[in-house]
Design a protein that fits this description.
Number of helices: 8
Distance between the termini: 8 Å
CATH superfamily: Ribonuclease III domain
CATH class: Mainly Alpha
CATH topology: Ribonuclease iii, N-terminal Endonuclease Domain, Chain A
Order of helices and strands: HHHHHHHH
Structural class: mainly alpha
CATH architecture: Orthogonal Bundle
Number of domains: 1
């Protein structure tokens, strides 16, 4: 898994932690959604038709799956990471996903907020640690 993700992580730090903490949590979730999904797509990538790859990716990026992911990483988050996740989870949202519980959707937004924060502050190794801890992927 780490081998595939090496190229993805070559982007440098974009913002300081203070700058990132001052962003709207949903802005962080916006970039975090893309980052998390790219992690997943990179992790599951192999020579299969795109529809099969999409089906596999959905097992990890759906709100319920991200809520399960959050449960698995919660005990290893530091104070700042937990704060960022909770800011995203608690932010009032104007949309909800179809066929997902509101609770799972809010927690998924928190996970995406955390990944957005970690990505733009250059904490790529930490993202890998969380992915490895939170996902049960056998490849």
């Amino acid at each position: 898994m780490e081998e595939n993700l090496g190229v993805f992580l070559k982007v440098g730090q974009v913002m300081s932690e203070l700058e990132a903490r001052n962003l709207n949590p949903l802005s962080l979730a916006y970039i975090g959604d893309a980052v998390y999904e790219l992690f997943i797509r990179t992790m599951i990538f192999r020579n299969l038709p795109p529809n099969k790859l999409n089906k596999e990716a959905k097992k990890y990026v759906a709100a319920y799956a991200q809520a399960e992911f959050a449960e698995k990483i919660m005990d290893i988050l530091d104070e700042d990471e937990l704060y960022i996740l909770k800011r995203g989870r608690n932010k009032k949202q104007n949309t909800v996903a179809k066929n997902q519980s509101i609770g799972d959707y809010k927690i998924a937004t928190g996970v995406e907020t955390l990944f957005g924060y970690l990505y733009i502050t250059g904490k790529h190794e930490r993202m890998l640690e969380l992915i490895e801890r939170g996902l049960d992927y056998e490849g």
